[in-house]
């Protein structure tokens, strides 16, 4: 089920990026599900979003700490779209594991430790959670400190784990409009 919602999240964020909007506060809490039998995911709360057509490159540290990409913490200009990729990865991890990837398991409320673990890419998937190798590889490609080396939205949309059981309406042909 996590894959089904992640596929929709990635397609929605890809559309935002195509429209030159970076969200900058992607998280599970900023997604909604409609009431249909096969729930459709909707992205909400664009309060921190930026348009690359109307605004300068982002440099402010905004967003929810557990979801923030390392470059956002640097207080320098960053690519909001690449930071959104990181936040999508955290959202996937939360859907799979039920916890945040960079919180210290012994001290989860310690913000400084969370930031340290984000900066050093210190996370692991608990042994009791079954996650395929393809999914682990996708997460490892997302959780890359250097934003220039992080997987792109297009690469995620072509990743084997993402493509498995991809709903017809989300296929590349349906996305040809953007």
From TrEMBL:
EC number(s) on file: 2.7.11.1
Keyword Transferase: yes
Origin: domain of life: Eukaryota
Gene3D superfamilies for the chain: Transferase(Phosphotransferase) domain 1 (1.10.510.10)
Domain Protein kinase: 1-162
Secretion signal, residue range per the UniProt entry: none
GO MF terms, alphabetically ordered: ATP binding; protein serine/threonine kinase activity
Keywords: ATP-binding, Kinase, Nucleotide-binding, Phosphoprotein, Serine/threonine-protein kinase, Transferase
Keyword Nucleotide-binding set for record: yes
InterPro entries linked to this entry: Kinase-like_dom_sf, Prot_kinase_dom, Ser/Thr_kinase_AS
Catalysed reactions listed for this entry: L-seryl-[protein] + ATP = O-phospho-L-seryl-[protein] + ADP + H(+); L-threonyl-[protein] + ATP = O-phospho-L-threonyl-[protein] + ADP + H(+)
Protein's recorded name: non-specific serine/threonine protein kinase
